[in-house]
Structure formats: C-alpha cells, structure tokens
Amino acid sequence: MTRSPDSGTQRRRYAPRRPREERSAQIIDAAAQLLAEHGWRGMTMERVAAAAGVAKSVSYAIFGSQAGLQRAVMLRAQEVTQARVAKALAAAREADGFVAAFSTGLVVYLEHVVREPDISRLVLLPIEGAPASVHEAIRDGRERVLQQIEDVIEARIDREGAANVDAHLIAHLVRGNAELLARLLLEQPEKFTPERLANATAAFARYMPHS
C-alpha cells in the first residue's frame, strides 16, 4: 500500500539545483559569516552546509575537505582585499597632491570595508583558532598591499618632484592607518561610521600645511 500525497508524510526539502560556481559562492559566503560569528573552530562543514541550505555532501563535492573550504574562503578574502585596494589606489592616483591622495584613497577603501564586513573581519581582525596557513596568507597579502602603496607613492614623488620622502616608511604609515580605521568601523560601527571618518580625513587634509 502506497501513501497518498495527503497522508502527512513530509519529504526533505533540498535547495534548488544551481550552477557549481553559484553554489560555491553561496557556501563560501555562509562560511565567512560563520567565521565572523564563531571563529575558525566553529566553521564546521555541518554548520556551513546548514547555513548555506545545502547538503553536507555538496560542500565536500565542491571543496573536498574542511581544509579545502578554508583555503577557498581565504582566496575569496584575498581577492576582495586586492580589488578594494586597487580601487582605493586608483582614486589616490587621480587625486591632486599627497594629502588629497591619502584622503581620497582612504575613503574609497573604508566604504568597501563596510560593504563586505564578514570578509573584512577575516582579514583585519584576529579570529580565534585560525590555522597557520591563514596567518601566512594574511601576512603575504599585507606585504603585497604595502608594495602597491609604495609604488603609488614613488610615482607621485617622481611626478611632483618631492625631495627627501621615504616612500617605504610612508607606505607603512598609510597601510597602518587604513587598517586601524577599518578596525574601528568593524568593531564599533555605531560610533565610527564611514561618513565620520571621511569628514575627519577631509578636515585633516584641508588644514595640513601645503608647500
């Protein structure tokens, strides 16, 4: 005897079938959110699958293992970071003068940090239980950013004929201040908004002495 559709038997609901790339992005987004809330130890394959609304087997089929998913999340974080840095540096190149370049580039960078807070926390804030490979990836990424900032500063030095400017040291200061302000946005968003930091940066640029 077969059960009728109205017999009360409930079938398990599965997520609609989607292209592999779209499903992968969905799972990575869920993993990044869990990382921000629970740390690396809380990012289990079971939790990620439940948060993404997929079967655990789907996550394993795409990423192979939890370590594979961790690598995919870090790759996404690096891609996002590089994209936002590229946009900030492009804005800095177009600005008129060193101070305006710092102010403009910083505002662009902070706006993107706020748009993607989960990925931003992964790179900018210490997350409990991060494996050594994650620390290495973050360190390598920060070094790439430092070199990119230094390249922009050196180009401005050549264009504006500035003398006695230590491009490497200034690059450290720019990167450090950008990361500090980004952490304020992430840790105290109700107090430190992009608008407040943008206004403060603009005021700083306005009252700086110009040669």
TrEMBL record:
Disordered: annotated segments: 1-22
Keyword Cell cycle: no
Gene3D superfamilies cross-referenced by the UniProt entry: Homeodomain-like, Tetracycline Repressor, domain 2
Keywords, comma-separated and alphabetical: DNA-binding, Transcription, Transcription regulation
Keyword Transcription found: yes
InterPro entries reported in the protein's UniProt record: Homeodomain-like_sf, HTH-type_TetR-like_transc_reg, HTH_TetR, Tet_transcr_reg_TetR-rel_C_sf
Domain HTH tetR-type: 21-81
DNA-binding region, residues: 44-63
Name used for this protein in its record: TetR/AcrR family transcriptional regulator
